[in-house]
Amino acid sequence: MTRVDVLVVGAGIIGLSSAFHVKRLCPSCRVLLVEKHPGPGHGDTGRSAAAFRAFFTSRTNMALAASSIAFYREVQEREGFDLGMRFTGYLFLLTEEQHQALAPVLEELRRRGLGYRVYSPEELEELLGLRTRPGGEEAELMQLPGIDVGVLAENAGIIRPERLVEYYSRRIGEMGVEALYNTRVEKILVEPEQPLGVPGEPLPWQKARVVGAATSRGEIRADVTIVAGGAETPFLLDPVGVDIHAKPKKRQVFVIRADRPELRRLLHAEGFNSLGLAPFILLPKGVYIRPAPEDNAFWVGASDHLGRPFSWEPDPQPEEHFYEYGIYPVLHNYLPAFENARPSSAWAGFYDISIDGQPVVLSEPGLVAAAGTSGSGIMKADAVGRIAASLALGKKRAALYGGEEVDASILGTRSRRVEEERLVI
Ligand SMILES: Cc1cc2nc3c(=O)[nH]c(=O)nc-3n(C[C@H](O)[C@H](O)[C@H](O)COP(=O)(O)OP(=O)(O)OC[C@H]3O[C@@H](n4cnc5c(N)ncnc54)[C@H](O)[C@@H]3O)c2cc1C
């Protein structure tokens, strides 16, 4: 049996960041990270589209993302650790009505000193070759709206998740966090504080707490267990009666190579950033286009809601017809550069969707759980890890990077005080 101060379950970006911040705040703590895969970042962290933006309708999400982005920027620019972070910007293509609805978010961006730019339909047509008024039978059938305005969030772009994983895993190794890979947590252990040795403990009147986990390598006892199992978190917590209030939903990414002049021109579109790169583009109907300049490609995806089940499987596969009928018709009607473009590869993973599109970080005696990152966990991981670490160390407040302090219970299920997020992509 192993005994540690803090056990972290899951070496995705949330578990890594949590372990890092626990050790940073408590250098003398013995921290152990366990992961069922052979290394870190093999779960949904490695399947992400890895875009980031400090542009959300909820002020909490905005703060989590803005502080995490600032931390990653510091790592890349000051520490010199290349995270593949590129500030391409995030371009929302909107109807006038949607633009009006975003007014409070734009105001919040202004208040935080985070820049954005507005593009007219004529500018979008010229810079991207965008069809702002797609016409024809197909466009009518799909009820594709006309685009009246483009809003470019500037504190946004793309990052390489495997580099972020490497950064945190290297740093925690240097700091003395132990890591056990190929180790599956079978069960979270709950015991009464004063056991009697009778059947059915903990009994309703007994004070109970999480005391660690039973794993494929034996029992690990811990003062606090942080569960960061991503979309699989409910499988660990449901059996001990803790509800994370988040569910997995499949999401897919398709790679389109920029192997012809129109697509290359689009990939290197001018007028959005100083890099001469296309921004991350969000089209109507939830279709997104992420520039992937290192692969001379675009990654495209779409989020479907009604009809797509909440379910999890160990090896999710992309669906060719989802691209063909779900994404391609939207893509090529707005951007003729994609005419006849077919994916060269694809992958699938899971969003871990919470009730309001914001992470859940809850605590129970001996337990902290951090999950429900709702498709934006990479861009918020540093802040989520800080909050989880603060709770694990019994702190009431968590300091985000840049100095902003938040109540550490703000993302809990019982104590939740967040606005609903309306920009889950
Ligand atoms: C297609 C797609 C696109 C996305 N795009 C973006 C994006 O553009 N920007 C963004 O910020 N986010 C994006 N996300 C979301 C982002 O990838 C997730 O929010 C983030 O990776 C979640 O990290 P995590 O650590 O919670 O989960 P994971 O990375 O899944 O880590 C959880 C870990 O826990 C381990 N684990 C689970 N159960 C056990 C057990 N019983 N024993 C031991 N280990 C266990 C798993 O093996 C896994 O390694 C996207 C996700 C997908 C699927």
Structural commentary:
With 425 residues, the chain is α+β, with helices and mostly antiparallel strands. It folds into two domains: 2-49 and 162-245 and 356-407, 3-Layer(bba) Sandwich (FAD/NAD(P)-binding domain); 90-154 and 248-354, 2-Layer Sandwich (D-Amino Acid Oxidase, Chain A, domain 2). Helix content is 27%, strand content 27%. The chain is built from eleven helices and 20 strands. Strands 1, 2, 8, 9, 10, 11, 17 and 18 form an eight-stranded mixed β-sheet that branches. An eight-stranded mixed β-sheet has the order 5-6-4-13-14-15-12-16. β14 (287-292) and β15 (297-302) form a beta hairpin. The longest helix has 19 residues, at 59-77. The protein is elongated, with a radius of gyration of 22 Å. The protein starts with a strand and ends in an 18-residue tail after the last strand. Flavin-adenine dinucleotide (FAD) binds at residues 9-15, 34-37, 42-45, 47-52, 184-185, 228-232, 236, 251, 253, 349-351, 371, 373, 375-379.
Shape: elongated
Task: Give the second-level CATH assignment, the architecture of the largest domain.
Answer: 3-Layer(bba) Sandwich
> How far apart lie the N and C ends?
43 Å
The CATH C-level class name of the largest domain:
Alpha Beta
- Kindly report the name of the CATH homologous superfamily of the largest domain: FAD/NAD(P)-binding domain
Number of strands: 20
Can you list the ligands bound to this structure? flavin-adenine dinucleotide
Oligomer: single chain
Compute the CA-based radius of gyration: 22 Å
Strand % is: 25-35%
